[in-house]
Design brief:
Layout (H helix, E strand, L loop, with lengths): L3 H22 L14 H19 L3 H32 L5 H10 L21 H15 L8 H16 L11 H9 L14 H5 L3 H16 L7
Organism: Eumeta variegata (Bagworm moth)
Keywords: Nucleotidyltransferase, RNA-directed DNA polymerase, Transferase
GO molecular function: RNA-directed DNA polymerase activity
């Protein structure tokens, strides 16, 4: 890739190839595949409650509002029963070898609270009341806000000379090329839960790159630097 146009074509070809592979490898997962279904009676009660609320909003009579509140209380009580039943089932399933057993034991484990140390004044005496605490804090803030000590004139002069020397150097246009190890390291550090960019290529897809695709990506990066082409984000 020695030209500007070849670099653009290579980027487009690689992006299209990745999108095709991702589309061919994708599958649809039902939204409620991992959700435990509510009992039939509970679902019917919720539907009745929703219908009653709609009726009460449309016809706000005392009878409709009272009936809607009654169903709301019934739904709340029924959902509490369902949660209790689910919790009981989980407790029955938990064995000493179950990971939830150790998680529960760790959650119930308590440690002694570490007391907050008392504040000490400048003379190293302990502040015994709120007034002394306030005075200590005021003295501490005042001490932190005092003028800085005199700076080292010689050190400042050397720093300024070094800055002027670096500014006078000719600009360096040649950037070091990317390496495959460097690109692989950055791909490995990507977070898979981040949203993809405008090219719709996710971090998870990049992590599945073979060594050949990573090498192609490195070549594209180096061609972009060589041809001074930086695609829009």
């Amino acid at each position: 890739m020695t030209s500007f146009r070849q670099t653009i074509l290579a980027i487009g070809a690689l992006a299209n190839h990745i999108r095709i592979v991702v589309d061919d490898s994708s599958r649809t997962v039902p939204v409620n595949s991992d959700c435990k279904e509510l009992p039939r009676g509970t679902r019917e009660l919720i539907r009745a409650k929703n219908a009653t609320l709609r009726r009460a909003n449309k016809y706000p009579t005392c009878k409709n509002r009272s009936y809607a509140r009654t169903l709301q209380r019934k739904v709340r009580d029924r959902m509490q029963e369902v949660r209790n039943d689910n919790w009981s089932d989980l407790m029955v399933e938990i064995k000493p070898s179950h990971k939830a057993f150790w998680g529960l034991a760790k959650a119930l484990k308590t440690e002694k609270a570490v007391p907050t140390p008392a504040l000490r004044k400048l003379d190293n005496s302990i502040a015994l009341n709120d007034r002394e605490n306030a005075e200590y804090l005021a003295d501490s803030i005042e001490k932190q806000c005092l003028e800085n000590p005199a700076f080292d004139v010689e050190h400042v002069r050397r720093v300024e000379e070094e800055v002027r020397r670096r500014i006078s150097l000719p600009p360096k246009d040649d950037l070091d090329p990317f390496t495959q190890v460097e690109v692989s390291k950055h791909i490995k550090a990507l977070k898979i839960r981040k949203a993809p960019g405008v090219d719709s290529i996710s971090s998870k897809a990049l992590k599945c790159f073979s060594a050949l695709l990573v090498a192609l990506l490195v070549a594209i990066f180096n061609a972009c630097i060589k041809n001074c082409y930086f695609p829009a984000a």
